[in-house]
């Protein structure tokens, strides 16, 4: 990091102990931010814990980093992280919701218990922290924290997934939570724009224990795994650091993807074709004919995210 882009800023990064979250913590810290590294150090399904993990990463991030090693997926944990930031850093500039677990299962085989655990861990936790941090961020704007009369700053970044935008076999709970994060991002962006706080969604591709876990069911998936394993999570951290910087002051409500040195912006669902009728007796049959003529050519296919992004990454 050549420039201290984030000097004086403070950040909370959930899932900061490993993989993409760890890279984000290190990049934000080396750009000058004080960082709370929040991670239980648990297994990929959310079980167990290793309280040393967050402390180890915080130590790597330097003197201004602090660990939080409890489970982040409760309103109480969200309040504790906010309090930790207020007590030690006197404010919150950046919130990165990155923690996630995996409990894959096909819709006709998975369990409601796994659904509840994944949605709570990967989606509700982001709401809890956003809900706890945004009142502080609004106050900072109103009361001109730090920059005298001109405090116009705040960043919320939700780490999503193309599994929530395209879908993927076995990931009903995970993909639904990631799709939910898209809605949370849009609404946070709208509601926080007056406080000059941005909210964006980042769908990453990077080598981590998640990619290690992929069990290829065919040649194409094996190739996808092989390619994903070559992508450093630091490319994700690079995009996140840009989004946190002053250069991205007016970038909000957007959906980015990052795959090595390739960064893309996703379109967001908007009507692309319409059928209308003035016929008072618009029957299902007539509607069906209109759909065939005017809408069918706009239908979206069932390609999974693994299929859609199975090209050589630029690493
Ligand atoms: N690696 C990829 O290619 C990829 C693709 C799409 C999306 N993502 C997303 O990127 C993010 C980071 O993924 P990763 O690949 O680095 O995974 P990872 O498993 O290496 O890291 C996730 C971290 O979050 C922590 N965590 C999970 N739930 C927690 C909780 N309740 N409390 C505290 N800590 C918790 C875990 O302990 C772990 O250290 C996740 O949101 C994931 O869904 C990753």
Short account of what is shown:
The protein has 315 residues and is an alpha/beta fold.
List the helices and strands and how they pair.
Blueprint: E1 10-14, H1 19-30, E2 34-38, H2 52-61, E3 66-68, H3 75-89, E4 94-97, H4 112-142, E5 155-159, H5 162-165, H6 172-192, E6 198-205, H7 209-213, H8 219-228, H9 234-244, E7 255-259, E8 262-265, H10 284-295, H11 305-308
Parallel strand pairs: 1-2, 1-4, 2-3, 4-5, 5-6, 6-7
Antiparallel strand pairs: 7-8
Bound molecules: nicotinamide-adenine-dinucleotide.
Structure description:
With 315 residues, this protein is an alpha/beta fold. It has one domain (10-268): 3-Layer(aba) Sandwich (Rossmann fold), CATH 3.40.50.720. It is built from 11 helices and 8 strands. The chain has helices at residues 19-30, 52-61, 75-89, 112-142, 162-165, 172-192, 209-213, 219-228, 234-244, 284-295, 305-308, and strands at 10-14, 34-38, 66-68, 94-97, 155-159, 198-205, 255-259, 262-265. Helix 2 links the parallel strand 2 and strand 3. Helix 1 (19-30) runs parallel beside helix 2, helix 1 (19-30) crosses helix 9 and helix 3 runs parallel beside helix 4 (112-142). The longest helix has 31 residues, at 112-142. The radius of gyration is 21 Å and the shape is globular. The model has no long low-confidence stretch (mean pLDDT 94). Bound molecules: nicotinamide-adenine-dinucleotide. Residues 15, 17-21, 38-42, 44, 46, 71-73, 98-101, 121, 125, 159, 161, 204-206, 208-211, 228 line the site of nicotinamide-adenine-dinucleotide.
């Amino acid at each position: 990091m050549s420039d201290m882009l984030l000097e004086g800023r403070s950040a909370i990064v959930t899932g900061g102990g490993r993989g993409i979250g760890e890279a984000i913590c290190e990049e934000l810290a080396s750009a000058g931010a004080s960082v709370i590294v929040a991670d239980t150090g648990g297994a990929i399904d959310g079980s167990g814990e290793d309280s040393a993990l967050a402390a180890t990463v915080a130590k790597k991030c330097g003197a201004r980093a602090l660990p939080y090693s409890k489970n982040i997926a409760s309103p109480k944990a969200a309040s504790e992280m906010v309090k930790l930031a207020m007590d030690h850093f006197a404010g919150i500039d950046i919130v990165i919701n990155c923690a996630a677990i995996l409990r894959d299962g096909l819709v006709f085989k998975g369990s409601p218990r796994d659904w509840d655990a994944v949605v709570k861990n990967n989606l509700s936790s982001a709401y809890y922290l956003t809900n706890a941090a945004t009142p502080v961020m609004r106050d900072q704007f109103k009361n001109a924290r730090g920059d005298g009369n001109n405090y116009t700053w705040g960043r919320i970044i939700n780490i999503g997934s193309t599994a929530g935008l395209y879908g993927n076999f076995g990931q009903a709970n995970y993909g639904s939570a990631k799709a939910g994060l898209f809605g949370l991002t849009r609404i946070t962006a709208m509601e926080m724009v007056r406080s000059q706080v941005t909210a964006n969604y980042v769908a990453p591709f990077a080598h981590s224990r998640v990619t290690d876990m992929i069990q290829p069911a065919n040649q194409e998936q094996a190739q996808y795994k092989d390619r994903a394993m070559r992508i450093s999570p630091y490319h994700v951290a690079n995009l996140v650091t840009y989004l946190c910087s002053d250069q991205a002051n007016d970038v909000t409500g957007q959906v980015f993807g990052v795959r090595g040195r390739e960064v893309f912006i996703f379109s967001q669902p908007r009507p692309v074709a319409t059928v209308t009728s003035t016929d008072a007796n618009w029957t299902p049959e007539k509607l069906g004919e209109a759909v065939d003529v005017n809408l069918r050519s706009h239908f979206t296919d069932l390609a999974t995210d693994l299929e859609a992004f199975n090209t050589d990454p630029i690493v």
